[in-house]
Design goal:
Blueprint lengths: L3 H22 L6 H45 L7 E2 L5 E2 L8
Antiparallel strand pairs: 1-2
Amino acid sequence: MSKDKPKESNLLQPSTQLTEEKLFSLPEKISEEDRLALSDLKSKREIALLNAKLALSQSEVLEVQNSNMILQLAIKFKLNDGDRVGEDGVITRIKQGEDK
């Protein structure tokens, strides 16, 4: 009987070590709630970046439209370089040969 006891303790010890090794070798994983929170933040960041790109594109379109309008007005009213259009719509022409 005394021989059986050491065998039991020897059998328990290696299996405990294997269990510890298995625990340490298992990959860690975040909770589903944390994974969803990260995914939500990633989506919000991507949306913010897309909105910023959209705003930049819209600004560029408006800049081109502004330049086009100025060109149309210059042609329509035969404006020269240096002529000015005030906020009230009054055209101030610079005579040829005058400094700006």
